Structures are given as C-alpha cells and as structure tokens.
Amino acid sequence: xxxxxxxxxxxxxxxxxxxxxxxxLIANKSIESIYxxxxxxxxxxxxxxxxxAFVLSLTANCPxxxxxxxxxxxxxxxxxxxxxxxxxNKLEKLKIKFKDSVRVAFLFLNYKSQFKTxxxxxxxxxxxxxxxxxxxxxxxxxxxxYNRPNTGE
Length: 153
Known about the structure:
By secondary structure, the chain is an alpha+beta fold. It has four helices and six strands; from the N terminus they run H-E-H-E-E-E-E-H-H-E. The chain has helices at residues 15-26, 44-60, 98-110, 115-132; strands spanning 34-37, 64-67, 70-71, 81-82, 91-95, 134-139. The strands form two sheets. A four-stranded mixed beta sheet has the order 1-2-6-5. A two-stranded antiparallel sheet has the order 3-4. It starts with 14 loop residues before the first helix and ends in a 14-residue tail after the last strand.
C-alpha cells in the first residue's frame, strides 16, 4: 500500500480499506506500540485514525496511544486549542529534544494539503515544540469512543 486516494474529511468512508492496507504493511512484523492523532473532534480524519489505531492495537496485541493536535473545546469559533489534551486522566508528559522539534517542523512542511491549517495553527505548534518542549500521550481504550470527544464544533 503506497497510498490511497482518500479525500480530506473522508477517512470514515474508507476504514476497512485502510485497516486492511495497514495489516498488509505490518504483516510479519513485531509491533510494540501504535501512535496516532487523538480522538478530539478537531478533524474527522484524525478521529477516524484513532479508531483504526485502536482496532489495530487489538489485532497486534500492543498498546495504542494518542497525541493531541487541535480541538475546539471551550473556545469560540473559528479558534482552536493546539496540542492541549481534553482529559487529564492517564496522561503521560513527554519531553521533546530540540532535534526532534526540528524534525517534526520539517514533517509539518511535508503536508502540503494542510497548508491552510498550519498557517493558523503552526505558530502555536512551533511555540509548543520549541519553547514548551513537551507533548502528552494518552492510552487509547474502547471507552474513549462511547461519547463525542468534546462539545465544541
């Protein structure tokens, strides 16, 4: 699976194809853990990816973790919170080395389809990675999906 032509905001319509494609990629590999974007209501593709990661973690018998990008919880439209967890339960705060901050900044630049998003959120992400130098990860479990991730739009 090199790539699938999935339109933005439509991953939910390709769950089975993506899941099967990833299964082919990880066949005969030992997976220790899975990291994905958080189920936080910021972007529907991120939320769908969290579901795929959870199911893959059950298949691979390994833990799955989410990391936070952006959400609209307790903010006025059109604003977002950047890299702020929705819940404090079982968060692990991880330090970011400077070289990793630089690497992540270059990864952001590779997502040309997300140019407008990073225009609005990029400065906050840069502040987070280069000044605060930490991020949070959180274990993914089935109860995460029982409710909407937040009440924002």
